[in-house]
Amino acid sequence: MHCPSFKLVLSTVLAAMVVSTAVAAPASKYAAAPETAPARYVAHSADVSPKTVSGGKNNQMTPASPAAKSSHGSAPLHGNPGQTGVIINKDEFCLFLPRVAGGNIAKSEDSALAFCTKPFLPGAEDARPMPLGFIRTSHYLRNTEEDWVQVTGTFDRSQYLLAESDGGGQYDMQAPVGAVCSGWGAFVQLTEPDNEIFCIRCCKEKDHCPKNKSTHGCRGVLAGDFEY
């Protein structure tokens, strides 16, 4: 009796292996689904702000929207609701004033709101309208080298029931907290009911909006035109 040749046996084994491979389903196709969701469905830490604001459904805490940015680098376009001012020209600008007519300037440093000469000025759409007849004179100035704009002038304190005895005070991005001048990195404003003068400057760099001279008044801090 003859034994099958080695070549014949090897051919038979290889053929069986090919058939087995062809009918076996790829293991990866039917692999169990992972218990965790794919990465593209997981919130990325960079997409969710860690800050929260009150409100939302059932007064739950909801993620705060990131502040919009402007062409002035990282300068925010909008601050807290009602606390965003803007300077466009001598006739279109905003000032921060006490929330209630007759309020004291210095005592309102934590709660002052933006009031604008015209409603819905671009960048300050949620500001309040300036009291009618409040602004008497206004003078606009822009410094392109240091990159700031300002408005100085006079006002009629009686149109907002401000007291003649009110020596005034200073507002900036720290008082009230969250207040901004739309599109600029910093601002400083001084309001003097006793002298009926005001000044506000919005700057790209905070060094050009000095806020450490509040007792010097408008003429000592920003200078400008305060003629009637």
Automatic annotation (TrEMBL):
The keyword Signal applies. Residues 51-63 have a biased composition (Polar residues). Residues 1-24 form the signal peptide. Keywords: Signal. It comes from the Eukaryota. Residues 48-82 are annotated as: Disordered. This is Uncharacterized protein.
